[in-house]
Design brief:
6 strands, about 250 residues, alpha/beta, 6-stranded mixed beta sheet
Length: about 250
């Protein structure tokens, strides 16, 4: 009998959960030469992997972006063979990509992964999960105008639910930006008090506009909403720095 490490067993468990959600997914959308009109413009399916040392992590923080502009799960020329292999491959691509991003120095500008690296420096990378609100991109950008968007949105929600249930993050940072904020609210309706007011708090008294940073509960965890980290505005930069100070130090 082959013995698997706890990390390998966890990865197998996560892959199994993905497969359960994707059991009725139209896999023709995963072919590089798909028969669907305009499906060739779709990216691969974005499936977060398990951080190498996540079982020992002191805290688990999930950062949710919008979508990855290019996500080539299958190498050019390789055809789709099975959903099991595709899920395994997508998770491996994610693990290699995110490890590479965390090891890089910050780059000029307000790149998304400058922020993930800042969170890693503050709170550690062992429990840092990189996720996306939408699981596929289209035409190297947002899939919202793609004719397959309702399918993408459906599975994006299902996959995020799997990821949150599996990783059990104490903190979720929604950094998907304002363009997809409505879809985030569809996925995770805000908790409200008896008068219908959304539960949460802002940091206006600290000089941070509500539009730049807001905290709200999701079940038993704290969530934060910020603009996409590529935002170059000074107020967005201040909000990111302020949020980093709220996160637990490793």
């Amino acid at each position: 009998m082959t013995m698997h490490s706890p990390q390998q067993a966890a990865s197998t468990d996560l892959a199994s959960r993905y497969l359960g959600v994707l059991a009725d997914f139209d896999t023709a959308l995963l072919h590089r030469h798909a028969p669907h009109a305009d499906a060739e413009k779709l990216s691969g399916l974005f499936l977060p992997s398990i951080p190498p040392n996540w079982l020992e992590a002191r805290q688990r923080i999930m950062i949710v972006g919008c979508e990855t502009r290019q996500w080539n799960v299958l190498p050019l020329g390789e055809r789709f063979s099975s959903l099991e292999y595709y899920v395994e491959r997508s998770m491996a691509v994610h693990q290699a990509y995110f490890a590479q991003q965390l090891s890089r120095a910050d780059i000029k500008g307000r790149a998304f992964h400058n922020f993930t690296r800042a969170v890693a420096r503050r709170s550690g990378s062992d429990g840092l999960i990189y996720a996306n609100l939408l699981c596929m991109a289209w035409n190297k950008g947002s899939p919202v105008k793609c004719r397959h968007f309702e399918v993408i949105k459906k599975y994006s929600k299902l996959l995020l639910d799997v990821q949150i249930a599996f990783f059990q993050p104490e903190i979720i940072i929604f950094a998907n930006g304002s363009a997809t904020a409505g879809h985030r609210r569809d996925f995770f309706p805000l908790a409200r008090d008896a008068q219908g007011k959304a539960l949460g708090c802002d940091y206006v008294e600290d000089g941070i506009p509500n539009a730049q940073l807001w905290q709200f509960p999701l079940d038993h965890r704290d969530c934060y909403r910020i603009q996409h980290p590529s935002s170059r505005s000074p107020s967005s930069a201040r909000a990111r720095e302020f949020l980093l100070g709220l996160l637990p130090a490793r």
